Amino acid sequence: MKTRHYILIALALLSTATYAQKKKPVAKKKPVVAVKTDSEHATMTTHAKALYEDMLPNTQRIFVIDSTVVDCDNVLSAIPLPKAYGTYVDYDTFFNKQTGCKQQVFVNGFGNKCYYTELGTDSITRLYMCDRLGDGWGTPRPVKEINNEFTDISYPYMSSDGLTLYFSGVSKTEGLGQRDIYMTKYDAEAGVFMSAENIGLPFNSVADDYAYIVADADRMAWFASTRRQPKGKACVYAFVPSEQRSNYNIDELGRNRTIKLASLMSINETWSSPKNRDKAMVQLNKLRANAGKAVAEKDIILFVVDDKHTYTNINQFASDATRRAYYDIVRQNNDLRYIRNKIETLRVQYHNATESGRTSIGARIANLEKEELDTRAAIKRAEQDLRRKESSLLKN
How many CB atoms lie within 10 A of CB 171? Predict the structure, then answer.
């Protein structure tokens, strides 16, 4: 479906900022230097120290808006993920069991796929995925590509592009300490996940790092870490995902300051300005307010099918397929709002830019205006197609 293809391309562009770190070419490999930032790093193995030194010059520049300390098993309470991106459900609730399992099952926004981990009889936690079949779920499939390389897997999160999977786990070769956060891509043609990569600093540390979750179209993301926290506590960091990845320049900042940024010692050092932080907090608080509403309230919509039918609840759609199509339209409208906001931001920059700078900014504005027109046209086509399909179902 062309509309779906368009969405995948648009959201893939937003997700590029969270890809695993790419190493800079260096003329000569520097000797490993012991990390001396705090007592935690003293517990690193020799291999982990070497890996940290390799990651440090590639520390991603991020904009951390806020941080919240919660119980380790309750980090999702501090992550106001909009329902359109998917939901986490307690393992026992989802499977109607009473095992006492504290794991979470992630169900994607379409409600047609779920991802979860389960402790085996050999005490190894493995990742599974499952497809929805009618009113139930099909046979769970172990994700062997990940299970063969990681242990203690948890908090799987499939991005809204349907291809990018984040999870936390312990790697035999690529970890800094406890669980680290990893990313993999799903190869739809081959039906397998590619080799998972450590997403690097500042997301990972010698402590326990997990629950990496991205709300692409809402320009918000989160992850949790036990770094510098009392036993049983974790800090949930809310940050703005970048449009395009950029790294801190260790040569300009110096080693010590880069280490502080890589450890997120002070989140206000990641702010471009207090004004930008205040603006981002408005968006974060809006998501928090929406998350506080009742579940039934979240399902309220307004969609005109025809002269006789206007839907006010997502469950009124006659099939899973048309319900998913409606969520596609919601995401496209989120994309449209993001494009509009970006255009307005660039117009302000254009007004204050030099003559040479205006040429580059003007070109970006023109490209975004074309993208806006294309997105509006795609939404119109998708709405017409959805009305046609839903009307046909109502007649039958």
Answer: 17
Task: Write down the pLDDT at residue 39.
Answer: 55
- Is the bond into 230 cis (omega within 30 degrees of 0)? no
Is residue 149 a contact partner of residue 171, using CB atoms and an 8 Å limit?
Answer: yes
pLDDT one-digit tens code per residue, 276-317:
999 999 999 999 888 765 344 555 677 888 878 888 888 889
pLDDT for the residue numbered 198? 96
- 45 Cα distance to chain centroid: 29
What is the per-residue pLDDT for 12?
A: 43
What's this model's pTM, rounded to 2 decimal places? Answer: 0.69
Higher pLDDT, residue 99 or 385: 385
For position 300, what pLDDT does the model report?
Answer: 66
Among the residue ranges 35-39, 49-53, 128-132, 203-207, the one predicted with the least confidence is 35-39
Amino acid letter, 334: N
Is it the case that residue 245 has pLDDT exceeding 90? no
Nearest to 55 by CA among 155, 140, 177: 177
The full 3-state SS of the chain, as one line of letters, equals CHHHHHHHHHHHHHHHHHCCCCCCCCCCCCCCCCCCCCHHHHHCCHHHHHHHHHHHHHCECCEEEEEEEEEHHHHHHHCCCCHHHEEEEEHHHHHCCCCCCCCEEEEECCCCEEEEEEECCCCCEEEEEEEEECCEECCCEECHHHHCCEEEEEEEEECCCCCEEEEEEEECCCCCCCCEEEEEEEECCCCEECCCEECCCCCCCCCCEEEEEEEHHHCEEEEEECCCCCCCEEEEEEEECCCCCCECCHHHHCHHHHHHHHHCCCHHHHCCCHHHHHHHHHHHHHHHHHHCCCHHHHCEEEEECCCCCEEEEHHHCCCHHHHHHHHHHHHHHHHHHHHHHHHHHHHHHHHHCCHHHHHHHHHHHHHHHHHHHHHHHHHHHHHHHHHHHHHHHHHC
**How far apart, in whole angstroms, are the C-alpha atoms of residue 178 and residue 170?**
6
How many other C-beta atoms can be found within 10 angstroms of the C-beta atom of residue 292?
9
Number of Cβ within 10 Å of residue 283's Cβ equals 17
